[in-house]
Amino acid sequence: MHQKCVLYSKFSCVIIQYKGQPVIKETLKIILKEFHDLSVPDLIERDQKVDLSLLRSPIKKIITIIGPRRAGKTYFLFQTIKKLLAEGVAITDLVYMDFEDERLLPMRSEDLQGILDAYFELYPNKSNPFIFFDEIQNISGWDHFIRRLNDRGFNIFLSGSNSRMLGHEIATALRGRTLTYEIFPFSFREFLAANDIVIEENTLYGQTRHRIRQLYEEYLFSGGYPELAFIQEKGTKSRILQDYFNTIFYRDLAERYRIKNSELLRQWLQILMTNIASTISYHKVENDFKSRGMKLSRTTLSAYARYVEDIFFGFFVELYSESARKRQINPKKFYLIDQGLHNYLTLKFSENKGRLLENIVFLELRRRGFHIFYYKTASGHEVDFLLQDNGEWKLIQVCHDLSHIETFTREKKALISGLRELNLRSGIIVSQDEKREERISGYTVKIVPVWEWLLMPKI
Fold first, then answer.
1. Can you tell me the distance from the alpha carbon of 279 to that of 456, in angstroms, rounded to the nearest whole number?
2. Backbone phi and psi for residue 38, each to the nearest 5 degrees, phi listed first
3. Domains plus CATH for the chain?
4. What is the pLDDT of residues 361-415, one digit of tens each?
5. Contact call for residues 54 and 61 (beta carbons, < 8 A)
6. Under 8 Å between Cβ of 312 and 68
7. Are 455 and 189 in contact (CB under 8 A)?
């Protein structure tokens, strides 16, 4: 509802009525102008990049940014804004709104048009600005407005919180009009950038090599959440990660999915965090809960597993098989979104270094967009990762310590068996420190230290 008014006896203005509470369009203009007058904050550039050529395409896609809580989705929007500015786009050609700004609340979907009205009153000669809406899920019915803007040819970028809007829900609401980008906690390369180390062609052979190795140990323990990269005190890191976990537990899971038995849910998450990079047998978990007097059906476990993936708390990886049924019935391996959560919240760092190493390798493969399986040979040997790279199958084995001959023989045997069955000529073993190449029975095995492997431009 619009009406005329006098503000401080000076300004003629428009009032938009929000659920009985007047919100002045002047406020929208102030927020828009604040963004245009303030510089975009400094940031660590992420490996993920938006293909800006899409913005010049006649087919307009809505760019959506999804990922776990506190991974840096808002700053990724700012990174994209900086790229546009570097290409010559004027700051006044951008509309940025953070819908967690209390000055915008409460707001309804029918009030969203007021943002563009305010923009065009500020800049009457402008047309079709780039739209950046952060935490858009706070506005009920937002999708109708966004679809209308998309129909009118606006370039739109959205991000949202896991507790209110999931990636598949965005795709459903916007009916296939989206192109989705996932933002995870820092990769090792990004973590190094946060510590003022930029990886160039020969960096690993220069004076910074030892510093990179030291920082890897910190990354292995503390993880890649951006906020923690700038904090040294372990007690503070522990409190921050505990707060992350509590928010994930209560808001993203218990509240969102209306889970009444919170203790059951907490125990399930504890099992997952303790058993990273391990197969999770629903049958064994069900029996374990029964032995403790807690009832948890396999159907409930399956639902909980889906929730865990939906909110990016972790991922379940299937055994490779051409049979869909075999992929479904075999136990899946679980990988956590960040190793820091495991280390600070389970206190099992020293005994799980091999699994942590495997978890880090998985996350890097996932960041690079690979569809990942684990592989079992006909004789029952397991290879950690099977993936396709440009149409070519690749096998990767992960082992923390190859110094013991029995360990190396076991890992090598599994990898060679997998290569033979899949008719491949070479494979990779990612280790903590060792680096060499071996020829074994006509097969090439490349052994690479993890901190170098993580920085390779190609797998």
1. 28
2. -90, 150
3. 4-182 (3.40.50.300), 224-353 (1.10.10), 368-459 (3.40.91.50)
4. 999 999 999 999 999 999 999 999 999 998 899 999 999 999 888 989 999 999 9
5. yes
6. yes
7. yes
